[in-house]
Specification:
Strands 1, 2, 3, 4, 5, 6, 7 and 8 form an eight-stranded antiparallel beta sheet that branches. The two termini are 34 Å apart. Helix 5 (175-186) packs antiparallel against helix 6. The chain has 217 residues and is α+β, with helices and mostly antiparallel strands. It is 35% helix and 34% strand.
């Protein structure tokens, strides 16, 4: 990932928040034909004293299951809210150019087969069912049915060896320009635009809090 220092996320809690808020990621490995092979798949992040581990599963018929079995190197990509930024929101709007604001996390490491595939399925469903009034429970499935399911999936654990977080959210612009872009996005009918505006406001507030603390030191 191209990562200018201005946009680098150096807080593990912020990286974890981005993954947790945007768990439907892209798992990339080397394909048998020499080209990258990618699967869109939900993943959960787990932190321990050993570091960060991502867990998920793909279909056993997916060629990527071979990469899991081979403990292959992999890249996991998580993309947060993003939006087009119009120069018309700046004052003055000329000479200025458009850009695209976004947040993303790239994690690199090695895959391995999960030691307890059923636990990973249970964790995934519990995570995504948590907001439902009557959550569906993996544990209520018939044992024989679950054992049949296990033959059709390849559950994985992904030990992260390097992780890069990037939040390009107008930190390189003046406060006035950033405020104009936030207001422009908040006026949009597109939920993703408004979500990006909220991330921009959050980044701005965090930056101001850091400046306030440093000023008092």
């Amino acid at each position: 990932m191209y990562l200018p220092p201005t946009f680098a996320i150096d807080d593990d809690r912020e990286i974890d928040r981005l993954i947790r808020s945007n768990p439907f990621g892209l798992l990339v490995t080397a394909g048998a034909d020499g080209f990258p092979f990618a699967t869109h798949v939900p993943m959960l992040a787990r932190r321990s004293e050993r570091g960060l581990t991502l867990v998920g599963h793909v279909a056993r018929a997916n060629p990527q299951s071979s990469a899991i079995h081979a403990k292959a190197p992999a890249l996991a990509i998580f993309t947060g809210a993003h939006a087009y930024i119009s120069p018309s929101w700046y004052d003055p709007p000329y000479p200025q150019v458009p850009t695209w604001n976004y947040s993303a996390v790239h994690a690199r490491g090695h895959l391995r087969e999960a030691s307890d595939p059923q636990a990973i399925l249970a964790a995934l469903t519990a995570h995504f069912e948590a907001t439902f009034a009557s959550p569906w429970e993996f544990a209520r499935l018939d044992r024989a049915y679950v054992e049949g399911l296990m033959h059709g999936i390849a559950a994985f654990e992904f030990e992260v060896e390097r992780i890069d977080g990037k939040a390009k959210l107008s930190q390189n612009r003046t406060s006035r320009d950033a405020a104009g872009a936030i207001a422009g996005l908040m006026g949009s009918d597109a939920p993703l635009d408004r979500a990006c505006a909220a991330e921009m406001q959050r980044a701005h507030d965090r930056r101001e809090n850091v400046r306030s603390v440093r000023a008092k030191e």
